[in-house]
Each structure stands twice: as structure tokens, then as C-alpha cells.
């Protein structure tokens, strides 16, 4: 009975850990997108270049979020 209980607790801790780890990429996305909007408002002629750089930054932030999800499944 104790082994089953410990497995359930470990599974719940993994879910809570990923939920907490998802806060970082969420903050990162907010900063990246917000600064891109701010830069576009300041210099509209650079909007296409800023948008390209923003998508590269968003891709890196999302990779970190997915890595956290995968790590939660691996170390379960």
C-alpha cells in the first residue's frame, strides 16, 4: 500500500513542478512580445525585422517549456 501511495505523490509532485516551471516561459513570452511591440511603436520601419527576431526568441522560450514538460515525464 505504501508503494502505491508514494507513486501517486511523486506523480502529483511532477505535475505541480511543471506548473511552477511553466511560469518562467510565460514571463519570458510576455517580455519578448512586449518589447517587440514597444520597438515597433518606436520605429515602425523596423517592424518586419523585429517580428522575425521575436519569432526566433519565442521559439527558444517554447523549447524550454517543452523541455520542462518532457523532463516531468522522464523523471516520473
TrEMBL record:
Domain V-ATPase proteolipid subunit C-like stretches: 15-75
UniProt-annotated location(s): Cell membrane
Its GO CC terms?
Answer: plasma membrane; proton-transporting ATP synthase complex; proton-transporting two-sector ATPase complex, proton-transporting domain
Q: Where is this site: Reversibly protonated during proton transport?
A: 62
Q: Which GO terms describe its molecular function?
A: lipid binding; proton-transporting ATP synthase activity, rotational mechanism
Q: Alphabetically list the UniProt keywords.
A: ATP synthesis, Cell membrane, CF(0), Hydrogen ion transport, Ion transport, Lipid-binding, Membrane, Transmembrane, Transmembrane helix, Transport
Q: Name one Pfam family in it.
A: ATP-synt_C
Q: How does it sit in the membrane?
A: Multi-pass membrane protein
Q: Which InterPro entries match?
A: ATP_synth_csu_bac/chlpt, ATP_synth_F0_csu, ATP_synth_F0_csu_DDCD_BS, ATP_synth_F0_csu_sf, ATPase_proteolipid_c-like_dom, F/V-ATP_Csub_sf
Where does the source fall among the domains of life?
Bacteria
Q: What transmembrane ranges does the database entry give?
A: 15-33, 53-75
Protein family: Belongs to the ATPase C chain family.
What does this gene product do? F(1)F(0) ATP synthase produces ATP from ADP in the presence of a proton or sodium gradient. F-type ATPases consist of two structural domains, F(1) containing the extramembraneous catalytic core and F(0) containing the membrane proton channel, linked together by a central stalk and a peripheral stalk. During catalysis, ATP synthesis in the catalytic domain of F(1) is coupled via a rotary mechanism of the central stalk subunits to proton translocation. Key component of the F(0) channel; it plays a direct role in translocation across the membrane. A homomeric c-ring of between 10-14 subunits forms the central stalk rotor element with the F(1) delta and epsilon subunits.
Q: What is the name of this protein? A: ATP synthase subunit c
Provide the species name: Galliscardovia ingluviei
